[in-house]
Sequence to fold (409 residues):
Amino acid sequence: MGDVLKVVEGLDLVVEMAAGVVHPDDVGTARSAATRARDRRGYLGGTLVVGIIGGTGSGKSSLLNALAGQQVASVSPVRPHTSRPLAWIPEDAEPGLAGLLDRLGITEKVEQNRFPGLALLDATDVDSVELGHRAQVEALLPRIDAVIWVLDPDKYADPLLHEEFIRPLADSADQFLFVLNQVDRLAVGDRVTIAEDLNTRLAADGIPHPIVFYTAADPADGQPRGIDGLAGYLAQRLDTKRVQLSAVISEARRAARNLAASAGLLGAGSLAFEQQWKELLDKATTALALAEEGSTVFEEVLVSLGVLIGRLASQAGGPFASRIRYQFPPQKIEAVLRDAVETVDRLVPGGPGAIEPERRADAAGLLSDHLQERIGGPLREILWERAALSASVAGLAVEAAQAEAKLRA
Ligand SMILES: Nc1nc2c(ncn2[C@@H]2O[C@H](COP(=O)(O)OP(=O)(O)O)[C@@H](O)[C@H]2O)c(=O)[nH]1
Ligand SMILES: [Mg+2]
Fold:
C-alpha cells in the first residue's frame, strides 16, 4: 500500500491547507521539501526500476532472462526481433509501479518473487537512426532509477551509439550501467583490449568512471556468466535507494509536523465545538425568551458566550486562536447579542421577556438563528479549516508510516 509518492502528495495537501494559516516562510519550507522530493530523478517508490536498453541482438532479452533465472522474454537470433516492451516486476509491488508502467505504455508484465524490489524493463532498441528513439530514452530517464546499456563485441564501438545516444545523455551518467555482453565470443586476450577500448570511448563520451559489467547472458556453450555480480550490484543500488527514500519520507514528515506546530495543532486541547455550541445556544435562547424585564439574563448570556469563545480560541491554539479572538472581540459579541434581542423585539410582539407562552418557541428560534448566523457559522468555519489541516497532517503520518514499513519489508 505505502508509496513514497503518496507521502509527497500528502505533504502537498498539508501545504495547501496550511497556506494562509501559518507564516508564509513555514509554508515555503514545506513546499520546497515536497518539490525536492518530486524533482529527485528516478521512480518515487520502493521498487528499483531499471530499463534495459541497447541495440537489437545485443542480448537485452537474454540478460533479463539470465537475471530472472528463467525464460521471461523471448530471445531471437533473427534480427530485428520485434516484440512488445516487457516489464518483470515484483509480485507485491506498490500501486505506483503499475501507474508508471501505464504512463510508459508497457502492458506486458511478468510478476516475480525472485528478486524483491527490482523491476526490469526490456524496453527499447536504440540502434535505429530514428531520432525518436533518443527522445524515448531521454523521456525514460527521469522516471526510472537506472538504465543498463547492453553492448556486444560487434557493436560496442558503433559511432551511432556513442554520438547519438550516450554522449548527448552523459549528464545522466549516474543512472547508467554498462554491460558488455557475449564475452564468451571473445578470446581471453581480446577481453582486456576491448574492456580498455570501451572505457576509453565512454570517457570520450563524458563518462570517465563508468560502471561496467562483463557478461555472457546466453552463451552457446552453457550457463550464463557474470550475472551474479550485476545482480549483487542492483541489490546494493536498491538498498541505497531505500535509504534515500526513507530520508525523503522523514523530511516530509518533519515538514508536516513543523506546519502543524506553527498552526497550533500540536498539544492543543479537545474542541468538541458542536456539542459545546449547541448546549450554550439551547440554554441562552431559552433563558432570553423567558427573561423578565430588568433581569440579568442578557449579561449572563453575554458572559457565557465570551467564555465559550475564549475557551475555543485557547483550545484551537496558534493562528486559529488569534483568528477567533480577532473575529469575536467582546464588543462584537455584545453587539450581535443586542441585535438578536432587538430583532426578536421587532418580530415577536412584546419581545423577549413579555412574550405570550405560545410565542416563546418562535422567539427562541429567532434568537438561535441569529446567533448561529453571526457567531456559530463563522466559528464553525474556522474550526473546520483547522480540522481539515489536522486531518491532512494525520493522513500524511499514516501514509509515511506505511511507506516506511514497505521500505523496510
Ligand atoms: N554467444 C552468445 N550469444 C548470446 C548472448 N546473449 C544473447 N545471445 C544471443 O543473441 C541473440 C539476440 O539475443 P536477444 O536477447 O534476443 O537480444 P535483444 O534483441 O537485445 O533482446 C540470441 O540468439 C541470443 O541467444 C551471449 O552472451 N553469448
Ligand atoms: Mg529483445
